[in-house]
Amino acid sequence: MARSGKRGGPPVVTLKSVAEHLGLTPGTVSSVLNDAPSARSIPLKTKNLIRAAAKELNYQPNYFARSLRKKRTYTLGVIAEEIGDSYGSQIITGIEEYLRGKDYSFLTMVHRHDPELLQRHLHLLAQRGVEGIITVDTSLQESPALPTIAVPGHRKLKGVTNLALDHEKAAFLALDHLMSLSHRHIAFMKGNPISTDAKDRWQAICNVARQLHLEIDPDLTVQIDIDDPSPQLGYPFGKLLLARRKLFTALFAYNDISAIGAIRAFQEAGLRVPQDISVIGFDDIPWAAFQSPSLTTVRQPLIRMGQVAAQTLVQRIEGNGEYPPEITIAPELVLRESTGKAREL
């Protein structure tokens, strides 16, 4: 029989009440609903009856009872540089989508590239009983005590799975596209060194440029040195490129946000995109398709990356195989309006 809810609320359906409803023992019902090894001997017809009854009666498992019984918290920790930025928010969305279907919860903490704060968060999450950690745009210097997935991850650390985009492929897609449009005078925005991907992405661009026999002009290269989740990230550096008075026909920006800011700077100077300057971004954030002109970009499947990170961590926690030290995600070139044939200089 269901217990009365607190303060006159709806009755609480217990595992025992589901068993009484079906005329079965609580142990049988528990085995099926918890997918215990002992459920293997229970006929499929009985399993289906139990699951149907649990759904009909709106049975909700007791989280605390399950945690005490299995000595687990079913909780993960997520440490991000920032929650509201377009990169991290999409990865966290993917994490949430996967964990929702697995009855896991997660605690999120923000470090804003403060090493001391990062260490405090790692210790605090361990004290709160999380079973694993997913880092987002976070540079780990040492192996955490818990199973960890780093998104993106580049440093090889024991116990950490690095999940990252194939930057060599991404650089090739972007530069090959621009060169196919006859662009040879290409400007570049290098990412802020505090960004986890900055070093590897720039190295990939340099490698691919050599393969394609494309010269990278230092006068057409600017280093982003501010941390801003808005288009202000690229706006002053677009102006800086123009101020150098070195002609170029295309810009390969560090990410979409910096590309959008640079386009604004170019348009304010009376330049048209893509007729005068083509611009290509990186990430394919939601704004990219609605920017005017819409932004050609290298897509990182950010939500999918969050899902893969969560799936990999849960499988590792539950003992389903060895952890992979690295997972590489394939990029995709998304062609829109911001790139076109190079003008003659």
- Measured by DSSP, the beta-strand proportion falls in 15-25%
Which sequence of strands runs across the widest sheet? 2-1-3-4-5-11
Q: Report low-confidence residues grouped into runs of 5 or more.
A: none
User: Helix content range of the residues, please?
Assistant: 25-40%
Named CATH topology of the largest domain: Rossmann fold
What CATH architecture label of the largest domain applies? 3-Layer(aba) Sandwich
Structural class, from secondary structure content?
A: alpha/beta
The largest sheet, given as strand count, sense and whether it forms a barrel, is:
6 strands, parallel
CATH superfamily of the largest domain: Response regulator
Output the radius of gyration.
26 Å
The helix/strand order is HHHHEHEHEEEHEHEHEHEEHEE
Mean pLDDT: 90
List the total number of helices.
Answer: 11
